[in-house]
Amino acid sequence: MARALINVPSKAKRGEIIEIKALVSHPMETGYRTGPDGGLVPRDIISRFLCTYNGEEIFSADLFPAIAANPFLSFTTVATESGRIAFRWIDDKGQAHLETAEIVVE
Amino acid sequence: IVARPARATPESMASAIKAFVGEAEVQTGKVALDIPPLVENGNSVPLTVTVESPMTQQDFVRTIAIFNEKNPQPNVAVFHLGPRAGRAVVSTRIRLGDSQNIVAIARLSDGTFWSDSAELIVTLPACVES
């Protein structure tokens, strides 16, 4: 897939609610647009996004063509323990892009 | 001649909502859908949904779904949350093919559904033929 930008605080207090932002570069081609040759540009959509915190799912989303190109998502989680927050974007063809971020909880 | 794709209609949005809520009653309240009332560019419209919920193990928001009336498809996104979210706030950016009504519906852990809607005007819609 492509480049992703994720924003997770590197440090947090135990029990603090942190905001997570994730953006991935992707055309999110709807399949409804006509190309230069007059034909429809084939659909290419990230249809699923998952976020896990030390392996446990904390947020996920089902995305449709109405999501803008370079899909951006922001959500919150409670900082429970130090570890790894993992992000997975899955497109229509089943291809996944993975990113991770480390967080230290004190 | 370009064949324009079929559009979602208020009726198809209603059936998409029905598929999400089933027979349950949707009440107005608890949900706040924050979206600009007038947007110049329908290709990327910021949207934030906030649900009033303590987000505890006993009482939390399970799912938030966004629907539209006039894009080719009535569904926009479905977000799955849990008590670990701490707060029920989700933001994203969406595409809008026309001025229309947007609906956000939250399903709480007790099985109730709550909604909010927003009417907005788009001066340059997404998906226009270039």
TrEMBL record, chain A:
InterPro entries: Ig-like_fold (IPR013783), Ig_E-set (IPR014756), SoxZ (IPR030995), SoxZ_dom (IPR014880). The gene is soxZ. This is Thiosulfate oxidation carrier complex protein SoxZ. The lineage of its organism: Bacteria, Pseudomonadati, Pseudomonadota, Alphaproteobacteria, Hyphomicrobiales. It comes from the Bacteria. Residues 9-100 form the Sulphur oxidation protein SoxZ domain.
